Amino acid sequence: MSRFDLIVIGSGPGGYVAALRAAQLGAGVALVEERELGGVCLNRGCIPTKAILESARLLSHLKHAAQFGLKTGSAEVDYPAVMKRKDGVVSRLRGGLGLLLRNARVEVAAGRARVLDAHTVEVMGPDASTRIEGRKLLVAAGSEPARPKIFPFDNPRVMTSDEALALTQLPASVLIVGGGYMGCEFASMWAEFGSEVTLVEMLPSLLPPADADVSKEVERSLVRQRVKVLTGTTVEKMAAGADKVAAELSGGKSVETDFALVAVGRKLNSDLDGLASLGVRLEAAAVRVDPLGRTNVDDLYAIGDVTGKVMLAQYASEQGVIAAEHLFGGEPHPEALDAVPSCVFTIPEIASVGLTEAEARRSSGDIRVGRFPLAALGKAVASSDTTGFVKVIGDATDTILGVHMVGSGVTSMIAEATLAVRLKLKMDELVHTIHAHPTMPEALREAAMDFYGRALHKP
To answer: I need a labelling partner for 402 at 20 to 30 A (CA). Which of 115, 147, 158, 204 fits?
Structure first.
């Protein structure tokens, strides 16, 4: 039986990062993975969707090339080529991850993990099973798309995001059920490519956890892309045939499309074989952990989606670093988890960190808000990327509580805002930080100035 300092179950952005950091700290690490290296994020989530969205984003620019004095002719979508490029991006990054793990001397065990106890895992491969032993065990088994029984998933025309990312032909028409980040990204992408898209969300607004101003702006953007957005609407019944999907909606509405994408959340993989028998404490299917990733079972840790906290790759990665450093002599900083940026890669992009305006009013009462429209920003006008805004929220002491952005490139701009929220900076520290001109991040400074009622370039 092979013995290690740490066994990690799951090679997603939480698991592989934990494995690499533990190896940096001198631990002998085994990484168990049932499918492809990189987990959902690399293979069926973050990376492939963004690769396809980059093609859609480029197409959007080509459509407006004449505004820049360029004659390009009519751009056409070669969807099989788009998907081939996506596959190439994923393959390259997966190969790079394998190289990183090999160089770090992390042993990868291919197969399904069955937990025998807090120190022993059986790896059930395609041909044989092996047992490995570790001083510590870290579960990073992730999640998978939810498949509610109301939807006929036995028909290939009814898909989750997993199947949607495997399509080789562009859907002529598609019904998307669920207006969260996944539903909105697919809606924006397919609409840009020319699909007829209907997006249904049961709650009153899209991106339900988002700031209200962000939700309104993304709905306006999708409508401009000719997406039919139906909020406050549920799917009562769905039937799928050989060439069509028909859905009956609340309010007596109905829709018929070529395909349906169901994006109504994810199921936590906390039902890992053998985990329950150890007495691991669960809360609503989530593995309960403390800020260092410890469960109630000695030597057993958990990170990522299975903890049910923040189901984002960047959160899982940070949890992985914290757990590894706590285990093997680093300096963990669990307070980093207090400021988690969230990004949605629609056209235009969305990025947020900290409290929404509604949350801030509930928690702090006396707050102020600063806003700056990208239409008033020099770089945005020069780039013809004027849709969107930056919004900052602060309390009575001027401490930055939240930042919300919609616009081109805001998923990169959010890093500065995340640092500000994490360090509990005052708003005037953004005001008195010089931002290069002309750049998009100047909008963040202008929004902070507007917090004090003195934005220089706001109409």
So the answer is: 204
